[in-house]
Amino acid sequence: MPSALGGRIDDLVRSCFALGKEERFEDGMESNFSRTLLSLLNKYGSNFVHSLMPLLVTKRVNAEVAGEALRWLGASKHSSSHSSRRWLLEHLLLNSSSPHVRDGAILGLSFMHDASAIPSLKSAIEKEPYQELKRDIGQVLSQLESKSQCPSSSEKSVR
Amino acid sequence: MPFLLRKIRKVRWLVEADLDWLKEGELPSDPLGDLSTKDNTLSVWHVDTNKSNLDRLLAALASGPDKLSHLDYALFDEALLSKIGIEFRHSPGASADAAANTNWHRDLVELSASKLVELAVGIRAEAQINRLSAMEAKQLVIQGVRSNHLDSTKLRPKLLSEASGDA
Question: Which of A45, A89, A132, B15 would bridge with A108, disulfide CB 3.0–4.6 Å?
Fold first, then answer.
């Protein structure tokens, strides 16, 4: 990525996370932070995802905001960044020392419905120190494993 | 004894062994973010002793946000309130389930800061803290709409669209 573009994205990421620190988050509820995050993702795609990595790995942002970002990154349907988003979530699930970040990664992966995450989830469940998060990883694993065994959806709808 | 239900963010309530600044037995402050009061009052939902209305209440809570998502919740014994000296009263809820709003919504009232902390400590010690996955939440919402428990006109467009399979 050209350094001028990378520098601009880094500035935008920092501003976005500063915005998040001032907000109160609720599950399933959009916020100025989530809207800004997703608009940056839509504009810059995988370049944006790559620029998040140093911030999230080195814990230079508030853990709750980081967790919130990972939930929304997982929930996004932005197709060209799918693999880089999944990679980021898996990496943080396996390597972050923050339970907020790992929880965000678990939820993000649950929203992606991507069975390619199964091996990472299996590794994560082995090393996760919190029982509550182990259970959550197990829940996502079951969901993905049953989906990969029965690919045709039997989900009902309100129609 | 009946239970009380409150939507929370589960990760805030994790026992954080790596908070080395936290004195033993103390609660960190993040859980209080899930017990935000208005006019010194906290909204909760009454769950019957046999939990027969739990799924219906979870559907009501899951149908509230902008989009379908997982739902973290705490379920605690109503007896916790009398231990702490917290009063409650019936009050109308604001979910998409009119009958739930009338029958099962409660306000915990006259909450001082110290009672709120005691409540948080009690929830952390005694509550069942669970997560409904987004898929499970979706199924409950769909069921709720089909059985006319949830008024679909009260659901946000994106959530209704997701439940309809359009999103």
Answer: A89
Q: What is the largest CA-CA distance in chain A?
A: 50
Q: Is the Cβ–Cβ distance between B33 and B12 less than 8 Å?
A: yes
Q: Is B8 in contact with B43 (CB distance < 8 Å)?
A: no
Residues of chain A contacting residue B164, judged by C-beta atoms under 8 Å apart: 157-159
Who contacts A103 (Cβ-Cβ below 8 Å, separation ≥6)? A67, A133, A136, B10, B11
Helices then strands, each counted (H, E), chain A: 8, 0
Taken in order B10, B16, B19, B21, is the CA torsion positive or negative?
positive
* pLDDT tens, position by position, B91-134: 999 999 999 999 999 999 999 999 999 999 999 999 999 999 99
Please, which residues have CB within 8 angstroms of residue B68's CB and are 6 or more apart in sequence? A28, B62, B134, B137, B138, B141, B159, B162, B163
* pTM, full prediction: 0.90
- Please indicate whether, in this complex, the C-beta atoms of A139 and B67 are within 8 angstroms of each other: no
Distance CA B116, CA B106 (A): 16
In whole angstroms, how large is the CA radius of gyration of chain A?
Answer: 16
Q: ipTM of this model?
A: 0.87
Whether residues B70 and A133 touch (CB distance < 8 A) is answered with no
pLDDT at position A1: 64
Name which of A51, A54, A64, A69 is nearest A11 in CA terms.
Answer: A51
Task: Identify whether the C-beta of residue B46 lies closer than 8 Å to the C-beta of residue B2.
Answer: yes
- In B14-119, DSSP assigns E strands to 42-47, 71-77, 87-90, 105-109
